[in-house]
Every structure is written in structure tokens, then in C-alpha cells.
Amino acid sequence: MIRLAVCGIDESRVDEIARRIRGATISHVDHAVEANCDAVACFGAAAPEISFIKSTVQAGRHMLIATDVMPPLAELKSIFDQGHSRNVQIRFENPDHGLPSRRLIFDELRGSKLGRFGLIRSHRWSSAPGLRSADTFHLPAPLFRDLELILWLTEQAPSVVYSIERPAQSDDARGTIHVHLGFADGGMVLMDYADCLLPGDGYQSLSTICANGAMYADDHQNRQLAYRGGTAQATPTDEGLAPLVTLIQQFVTDLATRSPIESGLARWEQTVALAATIRQSLNRGSSVVIDSQIHSPDLALQGFVG
Amino acid sequence: MNPVFRCAALSVAKHDYVARGVITHPRFELVVVADDTDVPEWMHERNQQFADSQEIPYVRDVEKALRDFNVQVAIVSSEAERHCDLSIRAALAGKHVIQDKPMSTRMSECDRLVAAVERAGVRFLMWNRNGLPSIQQVQRQIAAGTIGQPLSIHVDFYFAKDAGPPKGSRPPGYPPIDWYSHQIASHIDGSDGGLGRDPMGELAVEGIYPLGYIQMLTKSPVRKVFARSTAHFHQVHADNNVEDLASVTLTMEDGLIATMTIGRIGLASHPSGGDIKLHILGTAGALVINEARPDVGIYYRNQPAKEARQRRVASENDFLLADNFAHAIDTGGPTLMDAPASRAIYATFAAALESARTGDVVAVD
Q1: pTM, whole model, 2 decimals?
Q2: Could you tell me if A164 lies within 8 Å of chain B, comparing CB atoms?
Q3: Which of A87, A100, A213, A273 is an S-S bond match for A297, by CB 3.0 to 4.6 Å?
């Protein structure tokens, strides 16, 4: 039985998650090294402190890091190397991989029914301003995560990038960004991101158009009506604890069966390179044809955007 | 009592839905079907069948029909290459014109039509879907300031229809599918939206609808286009090097952003004809709109695959377009999609095709 400490989410939710996990005892921990565990899973909005990750790995504990904001890529690489040398398993996971809707799309894309993808279309609107840092080339963190999700779903890198943005107001950091990707085999991705909704619910939609069919995951379809006088309210039926349970169960199972744990590092490297190219397109106001020599993760890591 | 406009259907070689749509309005009356003498016999047959169904004459001489039947309105629904020519001849004969999409297959023809309509002082309407209940609802909400000033608008426009055999199905040694023959043969199931000798992709065939929404809702001209396109689904598109799937990013005047996806993505991809949605973000709110509403779900044993499970209801699109056209004739006012607006849409998808070909951002002429 694996002893897993979970940090970054409420204790009451951890208790609920614990009741659903097979093969592990789950405890709640704050961002501090927990002596009595084999592994640590980090969730939540903020990236865990690097010192916490390093000390956890130093103590020989496996780690699942699935926070909304990922630590900087250089740190991820350093942590991975540290863990590798100590035989510690580390997974850097986009938390959206745990969403049952996204997971279903991921699985179906690898099945035989739908055929090759032709177009992925996403909309993500939020009222919370997305954290923009130099590590993501000042792209909002949720958009950065969506880029990783696209690379995860498609398992290929785009060949051309075009991006445009518009602030909500002239002096506003919030606004809307659009990313348009083309792939060598004709596939395409069109992403619509905005963080300037009025305070309240956000909205997401992901449509995947394939040769033999299509998949539509849309918050529009997953809202229920409430009548309280005046115009009806549309309240979401969300995916609950399932995303966290899915990621934790997979991590626990992989550890228990000693299955090789995919770190996710290579895809985050690709994501950083893609973010650098998007920034290049935004700066130039033109499309950018991706040259793997120029648009490499290593050069992106050095801050090169052309 | 307002006068009734006497209408001539100038070819229904492609379809008769425009003519049928116009006469849903009590102020329009179809009095004759006409076409040129030298069109192929199958076109004459289609024209004759439609004329018979309406119990009106079919005349194999366009100018004679316009002259002899005291016509005020011409309704053009030929193959795409002749759209502008028939419309120009009608306009120069002093007739108001309602035309089916696409405007043309050549920009020079679009320019010629814009000039002819202007010179003749007649009204012109490109048939469109801007009168659908959901689109009218969006227009009212934006006009009322519900979401403030629009910042961006996105139209996802997927037609869940097939167009012959799937891509990759042509056996080795078989010739490519001939576009024109395929379009003629597909009339039977209504999938011949691209009727013409020149192959046309979905941007040309259906792009007018989402671009029409964007144009009407933003009233902002398109300045720059970036697009990707591919033949992803159908052998006929692959064989003729035209797209059945495309994604388009538009930069509008005053910085407004618009994007659009469009595709004829196959019957199996949606149970009711396709997922068509509008997403509009404004300074004070946002809208997510399903274009197909209102609808009614109908499901039953042995239901044909091609029958929509969700049936659209209460659409007054045809009536509203015709009503707008009647009002424009009465007042000399604008139509919902006049000749310059139609030409602007043609220029946008022409730029999109160039962008898809070159990989560059293309300015719209």
C-alpha cells in the first residue's frame, strides 16, 4: 500500500478523494516535507515552491506535480535530473489531462473509430486574469496549459503558427489571444482564449473534428436551468472530483506496478518552444513557419523569440 | 395594400430553394422560369420541372422572359460561373436581383456586378441565413448592449454532410472524380452546393454564411486574413484540390478579432446536420449561441441516417430575407446583404484561400 500525501487542495476534498483511490492511503499535507509517506502529489492554482520539490525528491519521495501553473522549465529539468539520479519517479502533469471529457477525447483519438484529426477548436474564457510570466513568454498560464493539451492530444508539433491578441481595454493586461496552428499533414488547431469575462463562471469548449466523426466537449451542453424569476440561470454540471481522482489513481497504479512513469518533461519542453514561437508571431504580426533548428526548446529556454 | 412583385427564376440549375424561399412572402409572386437557350439539356429539364411544379411557363430566353412577363425581380440560382452574368443582365434590364451563393468564381465578375447594380439603381440581395431566429437574437442582444462592445467573434460552422465517397477510397488506377459530373449527380440528395465547372471548396460554397454573420454582427470590414485548409474528408475534394475543412483568423478594422472554422465534415459527425455555434466576447459580457435553436428532437426506430434528430423549427429566415428585400425596394434602402457586402465576403474567402496556399497573412482587397 502506497502512502501518498496530497497538497494544494482542501483537506475535506482530500478525504473525499481518499475514499475513491485503490492501492494507497491518502493524507493531506501542507507544503512541507511529510516524513510518513512514499510519494507526494501537488495540485492547486500555484506552482509548488522549488525548495519544497527539491527537498521532497531529496528525501527519496516520488512526486506528481499537476498544478495549474507549472514551475519554470529549467527547474523542471533540474528536478528531473535530481530525481533520476536518486531513482525517484516524477511526473509533471497538466491537470486538465485528468478531466474525464479530455481523457475520453484523448482515448478516442487513439482508437480506430474516428480516424485522423483534421481540426481541434478550443474556446476558454475566464474572469480570472491568467498569470503571465517570462517562463511562458508572457502567455497566460491557462493558455500555456492548453498548448500542452493540444500537443498531448495530437502527438505532433505544428509546422506554422499565427497568433493575434487584443487587450480588453487599452490599458488592460487582460484580454483575448488567438492561436492558429497548422500541421504538416493538413491538420489545424484554432484556440480562442480570453481572461476578461466579468466576475463569475468561465466557459470552455473543445471540438475535435476527425476523418470519420467528431467529438464535442462544450460547457454549453452541460448546463442546467434554474428558474428563480426573471431570466433563467444556467448552472454547470461540472466534472467534480473525477479529474483529481483520475490523476492520483493513475500515479498510484503506476508506482504500485512499477510501470515506467512518463515524466511529461519532453512535452513541456515542446510547449515552451511553441509558446516562444507564438510570442514571435505576436511580436511580428505575421505567421511563423517552424524551423526545428530555430524553434527548439533549448533556444526557447534561453529566451529566444526571434 | 402594397404591390406584389412579379418574379422570374433565372435558372434553378443548382436548386430551387431560393425561389421557393422568396415566394413564402406574400408580396412576391413567381411568374416565369427562364434560362439561356444554349445551356445543357439537364438544366432545361430542371428548369422545366420547377416551372411545372409552380404551374408557370418556362422560357428558353432570359431577356424575352424579363421583357414579356412584366417582371420586377430576378432570382438567380444557376451554376456558380453564371451567377454574376445572369444577375448583371437582369440588373441592366432594370430588375431587382436576388442571387444564390457564391457570388461568383471570379473577383472580376463580382466587381462587374457591383458596378452594374450601382449603375442600374436596383436592389440586390445575396441569399443568406442572417434571418435565422438565433442570429436575429444575437443581433438584438448586441444592439441592446448586452455584452458591451464586441472584442472578438467566433463562428464554428460544421455541416455534417457527405460529399460522395470518403477520401482515400479511390482504388488504384481509377481516374479522379470529375467535379462537374459529381455535382450534377449529387443534386438528388442536395449536396451539390458547389455546382459549377470550376471546383469550389467549402470556403466558397458555404463561407458566406459564417462570414455573413460576422459582417452583420460587427459591421466591421475585414483587413487581414490567415487561414489553413485541407481536403480531409471527401475524395471529390482531394481529387480536385479544394478544401472541405478550413480555419480562418480575421483581423477586422478597429482591431476586432474574428475567427471561423468551416467544414463539410461528414454525415457521421453530428446527428442533426452539424454543430454550428457563435461565440462572441464583449467588454461587458459574452454570448454562446447554438445556431440551430429552436429545435425539436425526434427519434424513432429505423430512422434514416440522413434524417436530422433535432429538427429546426420556427425559422422565418426566408420570410425575413424577402421582407427585407421588399422593404429595400419600397424605400430604396439597404438589403441585409447587398452587392458590395457580398463582394467583401468573396474577397475575404479569396484572401483566405491565398493565405492557406502561401502560409502568409494576406490583406483583403
Answers
A1: 0.95
A2: yes
A3: A273
